[in-house]
# Entry
Amino acid sequence: MRKMASKTFFAVMLLIVVFFIYGCGNSADGNGKNAAYEIIDDQGAIIQLERKPDRA
# Structure
């Protein structure tokens, strides 16, 4: 019984460590993109803008 509790504890701690490591990743996916706003059109082209467009 104690051996099973030890394995469960180890598995839970491993999952916690994996989530912490995953959460510390770079949100820019390593591509160096600095666009504040990104749009994908119907054809799949990615359009990057400095800020969200507004009506004039």
About this structure: The beta strands are 37-40, 46-49. DSSP finds one helix and two strands in the chain. The chain has a mean pLDDT of 82. The first helix runs from residue 2 to 23.
